[in-house]
């Protein structure tokens, strides 16, 4: 299958809206890994997150004729998945209650730490890990979107459904808190933060669940 141009969002989105199964499949394949990685930050149950992604794309396909314009497919998908995961979590009595102003968001590392063989760097990353865990959930999410997903402040505002000013506050408060905790330890926060965010994506699952899209079409 010939890859469509995923750098030109509006035409590709319009092709999907017009009923192009090829455009739908290309969008699914391209964004599935980042959606899964982002979703797992809200819910560690990978099957639930995968179900949410499937539901999201099923709804998109079924409602394709009624979709509005979109300048950024990625932003639309991230924002939609975020809403769906939190909505389902709140509706599940077995799930921890999520407050609108402090939703759960996980950024801890796991086996990825084994990739670091330099002991000093490992200690720096672990110190940052502990400092990040002490941040409010929304600050963690804003940091993740900014430094791992490379989203602009405006894009983060759309995804998190807050103002751009609020995004600035979240990120700068988070960075101030990290500097305050780590600077006395002699930690290079910008450098270690870059390593940390790179490690978050090291365990991403690529291509998993792609074949299920055939069920929608």
From TrEMBL:
Query: Which residues belong to the signal peptide in this entry?
Result: none
**Keyword check for Transcription:** yes
Question: Which InterPro entries does this entry report, sorted A to Z?
Answer: RNA_pol_sigma-70-like (IPR039425), RNA_pol_sigma-70_dom (IPR014284), RNA_pol_sigma70_r2 (IPR007627), RNA_pol_sigma70_r4_t2 (IPR013249), RNA_pol_sigma_r2 (IPR013325), RNA_pol_sigma_r3/r4-like (IPR013324), WH-like_DNA-bd_sf (IPR036388)
The record places domain RNA polymerase sigma-70 region at: 27-90
| A Pfam entry, by short name | Sigma70_r4_2
Q: Which GO terms describe its biological process?
A: DNA-templated transcription initiation
Family membership: Belongs to the sigma-70 factor family. ECF subfamily.
PANTHER family recorded for this chain? RNA POLYMERASE ECF-TYPE SIGMA FACTO (PTHR43133), RNA POLYMERASE SIGMA-70 FACTOR ECF SUBFAMILY (PTHR43133:SF46)
Q: What is this protein called?
A: RNA polymerase sigma factor (Sigma-70 family)
Q: Which organism is it from?
A: Dyadobacter jiangsuensis
The major lineage groups are: Bacteria, Pseudomonadati, Bacteroidota, Cytophagia, Cytophagales
């Amino acid at each position: 299958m010939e890859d469509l141009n995923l750098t030109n969002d509006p035409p590709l989105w319009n092709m999907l809206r017009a009923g192009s199964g090829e455009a739908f499949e290309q969008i699914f394949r391209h964004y599935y890994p980042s959606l899964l990685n982002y979703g797992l930050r809200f819910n560690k149950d990978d099957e639930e997150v995968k179900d949410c992604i499937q539901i999201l794309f099923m709804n998109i396909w079924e409602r394709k004729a009624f979709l509005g314009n979109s300048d950024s497919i990625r932003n639309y998908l991230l924002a939609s998945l975020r809403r769906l995961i939190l909505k389902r979590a709140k509706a599940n009595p077995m799930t921890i209650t999520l407050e609108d102003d402090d939703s759960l968001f996980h950024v801890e590392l796991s086996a990825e730490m084994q990739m670091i063989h330099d002991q000093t760097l490992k200690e720096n990353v672990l110190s940052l890990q502990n400092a990040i865990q002490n941040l409010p959930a929304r600050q963690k999410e804003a940091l993740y979107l900014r430094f791992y997903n490379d989203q602009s402040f405006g894009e983060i505002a759309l995804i998190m459904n807050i103002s751009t000013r609020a995004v600035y506050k979240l990120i700068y408060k988070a960075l101030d808190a990290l500097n305050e905790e780590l600077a006395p330890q002699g930690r290079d926060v910008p450098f270690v933060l870059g390593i940390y965010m790179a490690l978050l994506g090291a365990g991403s699952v690529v291509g998993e669940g792609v074949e299920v899209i055939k069920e929608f079409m």
